Automatic annotation (TrEMBL):
It is found in: Membrane. GO terms for molecular function: sodium:potassium:chloride symporter activity. Residues 665-735 form the SLC12A transporter C-terminal domain. InterPro entries: AA-permease/SLC12A_dom, SLC12_C, SLC12A_fam. Keywords: Membrane, Transmembrane, Transmembrane helix. The chain crosses the membrane at residues 155-177, 183-207, 228-252, 272-290, 302-321, 354-376, 388-412, 462-486, 517-542, 578-611. This is Amino acid permease/ SLC12A domain-containing protein. Residues 154-656 form the Amino acid permease/ SLC12A domain. The lineage of its organism: Eukaryota, Metazoa, Ecdysozoa, Tardigrada, Eutardigrada. It comes from Ramazzottius varieornatus. It comes from the Eukaryota. Its main location: membrane. GO terms for biological process: cell volume homeostasis; chloride ion homeostasis; potassium ion homeostasis; potassium ion import across plasma membrane; sodium ion homeostasis. It holds the Pfam family AA_permease.
Amino acid sequence: MADSPGTNSRFNVIPVKQASIRFKEGSPEEYAAVNHPPEQAEDDHVSTYSQDIDDIGYITCERYDRPRRGVDYDSDDGEGFNGEDTFEAMPRETNYVLSLTREGRARPTILELREDKTDIARVESGISRKDSAAVLIAPVTQTAQGIKFGWIRGVFVRCLLNIWGVLLFMRLSWVVAQAGLGLTVAILALAAVVVVTTTLSMSAISTNGAVKGGGTYFLISRSLGPEFGGAVGIIFSLANAVAVGMNCVGFAEALVELLAEHGVMMVDFTNDVRIVGLITMIGLLALILSPNALKWEGRTQLVLFGVIIGSFINFFVGTFLPRSEQKLSKGIVEYSATTFSDNFWPNFRDGHSFMTMFGIFFPACTGIMAGANISGDLKNPGTAIPKGTLLAIFVSIMSYLLCALAIAATGIRDATGSVLDLISGNITDCPLVCIANGTMDCTPSCRWGISNSYQMMTEMSAVGPIITTGVFAASLSSALACLVSAPKLFQALCRDNLFPYIGVFGKGYGKTDEPRLAYVLAFFIGCAVVAIADLNAIALIISNFYIGTYVLINYACFDASLSASPGFRPAFRFFNQWVSLLGALLCVTCMFMINWLGALLTMTLIVFLYLYMHFKAPDVNWGSSIQARAFKSTVQQALKLMTVEDHVKNFRPQVLLLSGLPSSRPALVYFVNTFTKSHGLMICGQVLAGEENLHAVHKLNKPVYAWFKEKKLKCFHSAVAAPNFRQGVRALLQVRLEL
């Protein structure tokens, strides 16, 4: 608290030989001079106090000036909570602890201020007097910090790059052909509802307190407890690691098709995708492990963002250009109402349905957590996460919608790709392939058309190579973002020691504390996904992981809000607990409609992780929403019991046992426990004689309850401090058991 002159500290320490303090009469300032009465002020409204001090002396006074709006005197950066203008100082943890169990920040005395600067440092740092001798005055040094991003680069751009993945350019035209424009809009609307409700819940959590590193895991675990946080940490870090492999497969698929057009083939299409995908994984790992990885990753993201924007412009310009005979033969026509009408209705093939289309395309909307995943690298996460994420969702959904409209109006479902067929007017006359399944389903087997080729957006654009570059940029940027976020999230989880045998992955390296071992783990998971080499199958798998994470986030917010915990008071004004519940139910429904078996396995894993954390009861105190709900329920039930009259049928033994320290009289405690068990009430009372034992009362509870747990006893412990044993017993006997 004591500080140098000119700071925002509450106390000013001024070395003077003769000091004079002036303040308005009647204000709450306290005079800090030593045994000198105040002199009579010349002015009725102003009093002056003077005092002679030694050659090197200090004089103090408290300032009660009204703080300027937006200034937080207790914060390091001088800004209010979450960037809001506040008059109040930020609350400290020591404001809420029991005053008898912990020594708080001491207020300096006049003697300390006059004699030794060491004690001044002790007061500023909150060190107790008994430890102050070890404190030395040293200049304040600012700790090294990593690169900090604003809401545009850190959240908006990062989310857009993660959302605009490989599925945008390689599956959107195919989805329009299968589901039709009408159901494609429904898919986008359903995906938008899911991600927006989850973002609202995420914004509520991110504005519920100070946000540090660890991303989604840190936000949920510190706000809602380890049960939800541990489950989200495992599921979401796994989903991001799988997403790295999915985007590398998309990149490899585009590159292999490009090479095949020029007659280059190593083995076959599937194995070539595996080879290129593994090489891509190695390159990304080398990039992320290089020095200043976060700095280069940020610059790379901006370059890739520019490439994707250029690809969008190139695509929309190309849809308005005149068509060549080669493009017309591939089923690319000018804007046509007839084509738009034909593509409006669905035409599902190969056993696909609305929900399979939703499951395949949904990963294209799942980059909403990219900003929250690097919350520790953001300047102001409380405002950056909601603003940047919601804007990124709006921009991405609108871009998908505009692309779908252009595809539906300019693309034919089936085309032979032959100019001769175009001249003869038979470009849609494709040979039929029939499957004998009792009904002889037959479908056209053309090479081109939006139902058959994944490269139709490239063919529709003005300059095809630009779209190819955009595919590469979208896939690599998403893979890079996931490869950065997944290990950082997993690192925070490992450092909390919630799960066994994973602590080694929490170790950080370098100035920015990079989780290199976690990077390697994510690399191997991505390689396993690359080995599948089927983008549609991988998309269905990853959808379950992402939607499962969204279920936890939405339900956790609803649970915390329902418990009416004072620790959950989000500053985000658009949050509503019923919207979060609706989002959770919608996510569960989507999971089972996409793939009921995969959803069942995912939900089983989530329930297992949740129950493991619940029964393990890790030694952390983060303010779980489950504890808040249990306390609320207990109080409500106790209030109901107040109106219930005693009856012999409802009798339960209620015993106040004067046992002293329970472990010293185990036979007595065991005897009473034989008839109270877990159905009655037993309170073990203990008296600590002597005023000096006042501090020991609260320190006894932890070892006593540990002994209860070891002996499997269901009872309570109550200790009182009194001048003598008799008065202590009287105090205990005044307890009335009304339960």
